Amino acid sequence: MKRVLTVQDISCLGKCSLTIALPVLSVLGSETVILPTAVLSTHTMFKGFTCKDLSDQIEPIKQHWLKEDIAFDAIYTGYLGSIAQIDQMKELFRAFRREGMFVFVDPVMADNGRLYAAFNMAYAEKNKELCAEADIIVPNITEAALMTGMDYRETYDESYILALLSGLRELGAKLSVITGVSLEKGKIGAMGIDRETGETWCYQNRRIDASYHGTGDLFASTFVGELLRGKDWKNAMRIAADYTAHTIEVTLKNPKEPWYGVDFETTLPDLLKME
Ligand code: PXL
After folding, report:
1. Is 73's pLDDT higher than 90?
2. Which of 3, 176, 218, 245 could be disulfide-bonded to 31 (CB atoms 3.0-4.6 Å)?
3. Full set of structural domains in the chain with CATH
4. d(CA 13, CA 133)
């Protein structure tokens, strides 16, 4: 069985980060090792959330695993809490790098043109270093713009996305994928670039007019899980986009507060049938 380490916060309530990554990766058949970076009462879209930083646990946990000779087939990082944690992740990648494994970084920090509450521009700058150490990165358009120094645009054409991709490619990851890309009216998906060949590939499916919290985590977790199941990046990206769209559609039928999260519990059985 493949073994993946995922490093993200635990938002106790409000579906995102580890509470999405763990079930999705498990359902896709990988042993999922978790390293929580912080414990929050809810994700940061709720007012008055509590947060206990767990940075001081990362080094002793890492040392214990090294002593036990633990190896991973993939490391997947999501929401991190601080610049110092980015440095800790760089060390973690170096400690567990080995032939045949991949490092997948979702540089979670912003959406819709704005940084999330906990972050600033220095954090965005630092995220470039994390992306440079990764094999695969999956920023959304806002995160890609922040890391390439380009303007964030709500309306754009393919040339804007290609310019973002070429900026990301220079950061150094083997594969850069931008999420939430809409190149046709009524459609949305993702577009990626292979650093070595320069090949780009875009996948678009139907756009659903709703925005839910945690959909980026659902996309990234599915992408990682499908790669570990042996899919190539284009098929993994396509399935991740299809599964995310399907889950948003199902969630819409059962209206709840949109910031709470998506009903992935209902759709997990469907994920296994997606080819
Ligand atoms: O879904 C990304 C995410 C993860 N974890 C926490 C968040 C967010 C997005 O806002 O607040 C704590």
Report:
1. yes
2. 3
3. 3-271 (3.40.1190.20)
4. 31
